[in-house]
Design goal:
This protein is mostly helical and 211 residues long. It has one domain. It is 90% helix and 0% strand. It is built from four helices and no strands. α1 packs antiparallel against α2, α1 runs antiparallel to α4 and α2 packs antiparallel against α3.
Length: 211
């Protein structure tokens, strides 16, 4: 090993070390960004999709309860119990991150529900022979409500799939960056050794010539 490197060798060595430093720094920043993406998508899947799906499931049960109550004599009491639970679920669902499609379906769902409430109030306040017609109208609205709930459920599945794919893509990118980082560091190490030992070979050659 030479005791002293030439200026040219020092410049080459410094250049290689600078490249290695920049490589590690860039790789670290990209890895942090990818891990941040994964963390965000995992949280979003739970908070905005799994939780929202639970709200939809519970709403579906409550509206099904309303639908079944049209066939029994205690319908007014059952309707009131369902309404007490539906409104809080609407409020909780609105707090989740809604996509454009979700906002449209959720708006339609609420509009159908308010119309249903008006029909229910009129139905319970006036028991006329037209009651059969009121029940038919409520059944139509309940069908629309079920359709909107199904659409919202489909959105949850679609968004969950997209977020999962994004997480997988970020993780694969991290693996690729790690492999490239190792390859580049090995190449840089080899170049650094070539610079150092090239000096040693030159010194050896000079000694032989003097002899």
């Amino acid at each position: 090993m030479p005791k002293k490197l030439t200026l040219k060798q020092r410049i080459h060595a410094g250049f290689i070390l600078a490249i290695a430093f920049l490589l590690v720094l860039a790789s670290n920043r990209l890895n942090r960004r990818n891990f941040s993406t994964v963390e965000h998508t995992v949280n979003s899947v739970f908070e905005d999709r799994v939780v929202a799906q639970d709200y939809i499931y519970r709403l579906n049960n409550l509206f099904h309860q309303k639908e079944m109550s049209l066939e029994v004599s205690e319908r007014e009491e059952l309707q009131s119990v369902a309404d007490d639970n539906i409104v809080p679920l609407f409020e909780n669902f609105a707090k989740t991150k809604l996509t454009q499609d979700e906002s449209v379906y959720f708006k339609r769902l609420k509009e159908n529900y308010w119309e249903l409430q008006k029909l229910e109030k009129a139905f319970f306040a006036d028991q006329e022979p037209k009651a059969g017609l009121g029940i038919k109208e409520m059944e139509v609205l309940l069908k629309k409500i079920n359709e909107n709930l199904n659409r919202l459920s489909e959105v949850q599945l679609s968004e969950s799939l997209q977020l999962t794919q994004l997480s997988q893509k970020s993780l694969k990118m991290n693996q690729l960056l790690s492999m490239l980082e190792v390859v580049f560091l090995v190449i840089i190490g080899i170049l650094f050794l070539l610079i150092v030992f090239h000096r040693e070979k030159s010194n050896t050659a000079l000694v032989k010539e003097d002899v």
